[in-house]
Design brief:
Blueprint (H helix, E strand, L loop, with lengths): L21 E9 L11 E6 L2 E13 L9 E9 L12 E5 L5
Antiparallel strand pairs: 1-4, 2-3, 2-5, 3-4
Length: 102
């Protein structure tokens, strides 16, 4: 082997490093709500693991197109998770908050 060359080796992952201080959530929304949803909107998420609690976050992305087969579009949101109770891959239900009266 020459100086500066790289030896290719196969490595097997021993562990996965994850930052769960905030979790990303994806949801599919029916087309009829496309004009009513925008980044910054509040989203509430519930999980079977914590059935009596909801977790609040903000929409970060609204897909720019409608899926032609499902007539729906995807949104993404970020939810703060300082205590680490939410984990990647969890099943969750989501609800968008459209109006807030004070």
């Amino acid at each position: 082997m020459r100086r500066g060359s790289v030896a290719a080796r196969r490595f097997r992952a021993v562990t996965r490093v994850s930052d769960l201080s905030a979790v990303k959530v994806s949801a599919t929304i029916p087309e009829r709500y496309f004009a009513r949803i925008s980044p910054g909107q509040t989203v509430e998420v519930t999980t079977p693991s914590y059935p009596d609690e909801s977790f609040t976050g903000r929409v970060t992305v609204r897909a720019p197109e409608i899926d032609m087969q499902t007539r729906s579009f995807e949104i993404r949101a970020v939810i703060d998770n300082p205590d680490g109770r939410l984990a990647g891959g969890m099943f969750a239900g989501s609800r968008l908050v459209r109006h807030c009266l004070q």
